[in-house]
Amino acid sequence: MYYILTGAFIFAIVFFRWFLQRDMKKVRGMFKEEDIVMASYGVHFYGLASEPGRLLDSGGQMILLKNGLYYKGRFDKRELFISAKDLVSIAVTDFHKNEPTLMKCLAFYFNSSGDKIDRAAFELPHPKQWVDAIKHYFENENKKIPIKEEYIA
Predict the structure, then answer these.
(1) pLDDT at 29
(2) In which band, very low, low, confident or very high, does the pLDDT at 17 lie, cut at 50, 70 and 90?
(3) Residue 97, Ramachandran bin (φ over 0: left; ψ between -120 and 50: alpha; else beta)
(4) pLDDT of 131 over the 90 cut
(5) H/E element holding 9?
(6) Which is deepest, 26, 49, 136, 151, by most CB within 10 Å?
(7) Mean pLDDT across the stretch 86-96?
(8) For position 30, what pLDDT does the model report?
């Protein structure tokens, strides 16, 4: 009996890892490998500030490209691209849409349509590495990306 449970458990782990690898390859295949700076799976997307309603519960992967940030949801198929030229600032925060998030996350302020600034919040693994890479690839002598902290009072 224990052998069957152990076998089923090992099979479930192998299947889950295979599913993740397949999903990651599929999304990474959308871009040239030389354009990808870094990627993370297990990203939690809380939504856009401009969207009505409560916080989203979207899990997926984020890819940092040399020309922007790309998010793809795993099950909800939600997609978001923030181009490097539209990124205005980054905030380390513990809230989004005036609701507390599960953990500290990164909020990206960007120009959405026209002159409107929108906010997208993501819980990312290794946020300091993400911020450093974004600053390295997106900043130049004409554009600096401020990093700030915003905490719920």
Answers:
(1) 72
(2) confident
(3) left
(4) yes
(5) helix 2-28
(6) 49
(7) 93
(8) 75
- Structure confidence at residue 20 (pLDDT): 67
Determine phi and psi for 121, rounding to 5 degrees.
-115, 135
Residue extents of the structural domains in the chain: 1-30, 33-150
Tokens for 12?
Answer: 């479930």
Class of domain 33-150: mainly beta
φ/ψ of 6, rounded to 5, equals -65, -45
3-class state of residue 56 by DSSP: coil
C-alpha distances in angstroms, 30 versus 21, 65, 91, 151? 15, 11, 28, 36
Query: What is the distance between the alpha carbons of residues 100 and 92, in angstroms, rounded to a whole number?
Result: 13
83: which strand partners? 68
Check residue 27 and give its pLDDT.
67
Sheet bearing 147-150, strands edge to edge: 79-83, 68-73, 58-65, 36-48, 117-123, 99-111, 87-96, 147-150
pLDDT of 48 above 90: yes
